[in-house]
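Practice problem 4.
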């Protein structure tokens, strides 16, 4: 239900970045199909939780995103950050 609602909201958006705690451990077939059907990519490839799961995601239709995760004190979730390359920038 959540993915269907999200799909209706993002269908015609450009320059889309969605980030958040999706509480979805592992890649599921339904989630992967959602990514493909909506021409978006999930950019977090490292664990974002102290137990080793990738729960905090960054989803976008932008091609030049670079992401990373970093363990931080006082929480079981890692810092999730993304860098967007500007046209003409040298990174």
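Answer key:
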């Amino acid at each position: 239900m959540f993915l269907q609602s999200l799909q209706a909201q993002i269908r015609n958006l450009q320059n889309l970045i969605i980030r958040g705690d999706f509480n979805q451990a592992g890649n599921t077939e339904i989630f992967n199909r959602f990514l493909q059907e909506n021409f978006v990519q999930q950019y977090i490839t490292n664990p974002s939780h102290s137990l080793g799961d990738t729960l905090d995601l960054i989803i976008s239709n932008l091609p030049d995103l670079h992401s990373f995760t970093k363990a931080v004190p006082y929480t079981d979730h890692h810092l999730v950050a993304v860098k967007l390359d500007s046209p003409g920038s040298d990174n």
